[in-house]
Every structure is written in C-alpha cells, then in structure tokens.
C-alpha cells in the first residue's frame, strides 16, 4: 500500500485529493496548519498532521512524523487579487513564501528519502493562469510560474534517481475557500484608477459557466501519482 502526503488539506483541492486517495486504498497523510480529525472519513489509513509550509520547524516535524512516503502533493497555497500598485511588498512576500518557497522547502525535505530509495513522485499544484495570463493576478501568477519553472528543471535533475516531478494546473474553482481566504490580503488592492478594469474582470467571471471542480484536480493528481507516462504538465478543470 502506497502513502501520499498532501499539504493544505483543510479545504478545497487538498481535502478532495486526500479523500480521493483514501477511497482508492492509499495511506494518506493529510496535513493542515490547524489539524482537524473531523474533515475526512475515519480510517486506519488516514493520519492528520500539523504542517505550515512556511515554517522550517513545522516542516521538519511533519516529515519526520510522516516517515516513508511515496508521493508528495504540494497543494497548499494562497491567493491575492489586485493591481500591483495596491499590493504591499509584505503581501507579495507572503504569497511567495507560501506558494513558491513552501513548495521548494517541502520538496527539499522529502528528496533524501526519495533519492535513497530510487523512487518517489512530487506533484506541484500551480494554476492555469500561468498559461493564460489575467490582469490583477500578477503577483500570484508570478509565484506559481516560478513553481512551474522550478518543477521543469528539477524533473531533469532527478530523472537519474527515478524520482518524478509533475505539475497540475487547475482552472478557476469558486467552490473552494480560495477566494474567501484571499480576502484578508485584498484590502485596498484595487486603487481607484483600476476600478474599471476590476469591474470588467469580475463581470467576465460572472458570465463564465465553465469552472474547475475540486475532483478535477484530485483526478489529475491521481493520474500523476499512478501513471508514469503522464505528461509533466496536466491542466485540470473544464475551463482550462
Ligand atoms: N481555487 C482556485 O480558483 C485555484 C485555481 C488554481 C490553482 N489553485 C491552487 O490550488 C491550491 C489549493 O487551493 P484551493 O482552491 O483548494 O484553496 P483553499 O480552499 O483556500 O485551500 C488552500 C489550502 O492551503 C492551506 N494553506 C495556506 N497557507 C498554508 C501554509 N502556510 N501552510 C500549510 N497550508 C497552508 C489552507 O489552509 P488553512 O485552512 O490553514 O488556511 C488550505 O487548506 C492552491 O495552491 C491554489 O493556489 C486554486
């Protein structure tokens, strides 16, 4: 029986991915900043561990407690929507700290065991906005595009050890807590000069019916974990 460790399992794609793998007889280590046992079905194959991907001690403790894993899913992430002029450097750093450096740090933490066993898969969840740029998402898109580039270079470096590194690029998923969780970073993020642009962006989103569901992401992660011929980049969602 194989083991997957998923980051950011308290809601959205991470929670659904944990559920998807549990249903298919994998051992699942569901990690969250604030561990909750009541989010996933009770199972002898489930462990819930505390993990904040921006905290080196938390990473060390979680990876030690996890023991041997076969697949790491770097899913934890935060968003911010706003004009660059309305986003503080503190917020830009926060977004990179979680989305980009959090992914790099978690990957670095599991690589020794993957390399020694000559086996292992890292799956990084980025975003389809890195393929189709949208306005008001410059900082977020940059944080995810950096992960795409990181993944593609690392994949070449780790081929010799039979370690795979893959990307899943979801589309827009209004059903997760992503938008709500981003609100705190979006105070004053649309200065008056950008109000017209923001209005047109929100109107376009309001009209689009095709969106991404959490299960689309879980399916793509599942494929990356189970199909060695899977392309390095997979999009996920009807809108991608
Ligand atoms: N929803 C979308 O439209 C969309 C589209 C493309 C890509 N994505 C990406 O998909 C991933 C999952 O997003 P989602 O839509 O499922 O959003 P979500 O419901 O907000 O879930 C994000 C998860 O990341 C966790 N998280 C945030 N900061 C963390 C940290 N420092 N350490 C550990 N966990 C942390 C959150 O935990 P807390 O409960 O502790 O905050 C939450 O469990 C993200 O990487 C996001 O960028 C989302």
Summarize the structure in words.
The chain is of the alpha/beta class and 240 residues long. Strand 5, helix 4 and strand 6 (163-170) form a beta-alpha-beta unit. A seven-stranded parallel sheet has the order 3-2-1-4-5-6-7, with helices on both faces. The protein has a single domain (3-235), classed as Rossmann fold (3-Layer(aba) Sandwich), CATH 3.40.50.720. Helix 1 crosses helix 7 (214-226), helix 2 packs parallel to helix 3 (89-117) and helix 3 (89-117) runs parallel beside helix 4 (138-158). 43% of the residues lie in helices and 15% in strands. It binds NADP nicotinamide-adenine-dinucleotide phosphate. NADP nicotinamide-adenine-dinucleotide phosphate binds at residues 7-14, 32-34, 51-54, 75-79, 98, 102, 125, 127, 170, 172-173, 176-178, 181. NADP nicotinamide-adenine-dinucleotide phosphate is lined by residues 7-14, 32-34, 51-54, 75-79, 98, 102, 125, 127, 170, 172-173, 176-178, 181.
Care to give the gist of this entry?
This protein is of the alpha/beta class and 240 residues long. It is 43% helix and 15% strand.
Query: Any ligands, ions or cofactors bound here, and which?
Result: NADP nicotinamide-adenine-dinucleotide phosphate
| Tally of separate domains | 1
Highest-level CATH class: Alpha Beta
Tally of DSSP helical segments: 7
CATH level-4 homologous superfamily: NAD(P)-binding Rossmann-like Domain
Main structural class: alpha/beta
Which strand order do you get reading across the main beta sheet? Answer: 3-2-1-4-5-6-7
Secondary-structure element series: EHEEHEHEHEHHHE
Taking the alpha carbons of the first and last residues, their distance comes to 33 Å
Name the beta content range: 15-25%
Largest sheet: 7 strands, parallel
Mean pLDDT: 97
Task: Tell how many strands the DSSP assignment holds.
Answer: 7
């Amino acid at each position: 029986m194989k083991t997957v460790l998923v980051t950011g399992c308290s809601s959205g794609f991470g929670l659904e991915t944990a559920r998807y793998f549990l249903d298919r007889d994998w051992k699942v280590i569901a990690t969250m900043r604030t561990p909750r046992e009541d989010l996933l079905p009770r199972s002898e194959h489930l462990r819930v561990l505390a993990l904040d991907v921006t905290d080196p001690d938390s990473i060390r403790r979680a990876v030690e407690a996890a023991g041997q894993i076969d697949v790491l899913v770097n899913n934890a992430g935060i968003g911010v929507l706003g004009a660059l002029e309305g986003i503080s450097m503190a917020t830009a750093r926060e977004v990179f700290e979680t989305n980009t450096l959090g992914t790099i740090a978690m990957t670095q933490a599991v690589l020794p065991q993957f390399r020694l066993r000559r086996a292992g898969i890292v799956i990084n969840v980025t975003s389809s906005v890195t393929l189709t740029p949208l306005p008001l998402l410059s900082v977020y898109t940059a944080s995810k595009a950096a992960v795409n580039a990181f993944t593609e270079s690392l994949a070449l470096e780790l081929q010799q050890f039979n370690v795979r590194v893959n990307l899943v690029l979801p589309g827009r998923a209004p059903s997760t807590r992503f938008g709500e969780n981003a609100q705190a970073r979006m105070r004053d993020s649309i200065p008056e000069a950008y109000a017209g642009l923001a209005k047109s962006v929100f109107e376009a989103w309001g009209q689009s019916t095709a969106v991404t569901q959490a299960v689309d992401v879980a399916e793509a992660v599942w494929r990356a974990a189970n199909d060695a011929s899977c392309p390095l980049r997979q999009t996920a969602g009807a809108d991608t």
